[in-house]
Amino acid sequence: MDAQQPTQHHARQHAPAAAPAAVDRAAVDRALVDRAAALDAADPLAHLRDEFVLDEQVRSYLDGNSLGRPTRTAAERLGRFAVEEWGARLIRAWDESWMELPLRLGDRIARLTLGAAEGQTFVGDSTTVILYKLLRAAVDAQAAAGRHEIILDTGNFPTDRYLLEGIAAERGMTLRWIDTDPVEGVALADVEALLGERTAVVVLSHVEYRSGHLADLPGITAAAHRHGALVLWDLCHSVGSVPITLDAHEVDLAVGCTYKYLNGGPGSPAFGYVARRHLGRLRQPVQGWMGAADPFAMGPEYAPHPGIRGFISGTPPVTGMLAMEGMLDLIEQAGMEAVREKSVALTGFAEELVDELLTPLGVRLSSPRDPQRRGSHVTVDHEDFAAVLPRLWSQGVIPDFRPPHGLRLGLSPLSTSFAEVEVGIRAIRDSLVEVRDGAGSA
Prior knowledge:
The protein is an alpha/beta fold. The chain has helices at 5-14, 18-42, 72-89, 92-96, 101-114, 127-143, 158-171, 188-192, 217-226, 318-321, 324-334, 336-358, 385-394, 418-441; strands at residues 60-61, 121-123, 149-153, 174-178, 199-205, 230-234, 253-256, 271-274, 364-365, 377-381, 397-398, 400-402, 406-410.
């Protein structure tokens, strides 16, 4: 990158005509292509990209933090399942494997990605439903001790905020809002300023959905506990891309989706984590037959299962759980530390490209620059990005648009190549120039 600076400076000083600038851009582009190729060649996880379904029409997929690519194993497994399990075993498969699948899969997610022991994680409903169940259980338990305040932040994902507003109204709770910095996210000091003897629960995202800010999970959890509060972490944008240590840092509750970095497919069920010390103490509000102590007793009254099964409500979505097994195999093969190392390298390369190609056009990086303080996506802002997005999608370049004018570049470590990042950000530059020049001539 630095080697290009003297050439660029020379062009600015001595070449008023357009042609030399075009030659200079081509030289810069060739250097970036070569750099991306070198990074891919040195990547110890590059071979795992072949384990994903890669459509040739998609030149650059930069939205893995919204929907992960399917693994090849998932494509094969779903077909076999319809014939060999659903078709051949039919209802017998409930006794043979399906009944325990939410707990078996939950334990595997916990072991590989959450830093959690078995018996504390289940897979079942949507993120919203599990978030509701865990939070209602938490605030009801804390209300008995005179705690009626919930700490949350203005930058959290809309579902989290909307749901908390509803629970607060439903249970007579008070919301204490942190006015979040749009880039830097929630800091430990922000939470400490609101904690007190009336705090029931702190609800935050581990990785902020827009900026990618990575919160201080150990510090915030410990601070909440010093004041007698519980903490619920939303792990949707961190699970599968950032190592998580729920047990080691005594996290109380957590929820996360499986269709982002766990590649479970659109609408795949979420997971919930309840620390073992809270099982039996917290009682979830959606009492269904699958969470009963004996689901097949069909008794006249509900008696909750004392373990994590007690947080399951209805029949598990078996087909929705199948696809993520292949991704968990790949995470187990790579190891979360290596996944995180690749993630940091990808977002670092993206940051370099943003500075080189987009910043001169007025684009702003809206994510932390310190790689230790961000997850696996970066966000860039420009007032013309709403007009740029359709151009990119038509070229097979797929980032995510976040109003009012942000492009979120989600880099899934095992399925995203450095070349994809380079192609995508270069396409953003070219499309932005086209939109700018077109508007200027209108």
